[in-house]
Write a structure and sequence with these properties.
Elements (H helix, E strand, L loop, with lengths): L14 H12 L2 H4 L6 E3 L13 E6 L5 H10 L9 E4 L2 E2 L2 E10 L2 E8 L7 H16 L1 H12 L4 H9 L4 H7 L1
Length: 175
């Protein structure tokens, strides 16, 4: 299995993964976020991304100190000085979170902060389950997922449709 706790695997991936690696290392994103245990999750790592898919980076952030985290993002130039960004504070499954969206070169980037170790957050757990399913089901299944995504269906619901899952966000965590 790929070690998704680093981004090294992107160096030998498909064209988009290699480009993501270049951009993330050029801007030293993971180095600058190292105090927050960042992980790249979502569709790019498991090669089911489509045009416009973002680079999802999850971090462990104690939201009592969110201002320190936000200052670090800006001061360390993770978010380029001229880039527009959006910050939201959703509550997901009863937990306060922070979501920062911005562009980095050609990639939309989403940094997601939650006061939970990154490898225990649902986004990482979903990706690992999806990766295992893709390995098990093969290329045809993978292409069906990508096809559903190009039709506007989000990743977990796409897996849910093909696997007949009643609640894909919960059911994938059990896979």
């Amino acid at each position: 299995m790929i070690d998704f706790t680093t981004i090294d695997y992107l160096k030998t991936g498909n064209n988009r993964q290699r480009r993501a690696y270049e951009v993330l290392t050029q801007y030293r994103i993971f180095e600058k976020l190292s105090d927050y245990s960042p992980l790249l999750v979502g569709t790019v790592p498991i090669e089911i991304d489509i045009e416009g898919s973002d680079l999802d980076i999850i971090c462990q952030v104690d939201l009592r100190f969110k201002e320190i985290f936000l200052d670090r993002l800006k001061l360390s130039e993770i978010i380029p000085g001229n880039a527009e960004y959006n910050i939201d504070y959703p509550v997901i499954s009863g937990e306060k979170c922070m979501v920062i969206n911005f562009m980095l070169e050609e990639f939309p980037v989403e940094i997601f902060g939650q006061n939970k170790p990154a490898d225990q957050q649902n986004a990482y757990r979903h990706m690992i389950a999806e990766y295992k399913i893709l390995q098990e089901k093969g290329e045809y299944f993978k292409q069906k997922i990508i096809e559903l995504k190009t039709k506007g269906i989000k990743t977990e619901p796409a897996f849910g449709l093909l696997l007949d899952l009643k609640n894909p966000y919960e059911d994938l965590l059990k896979y």
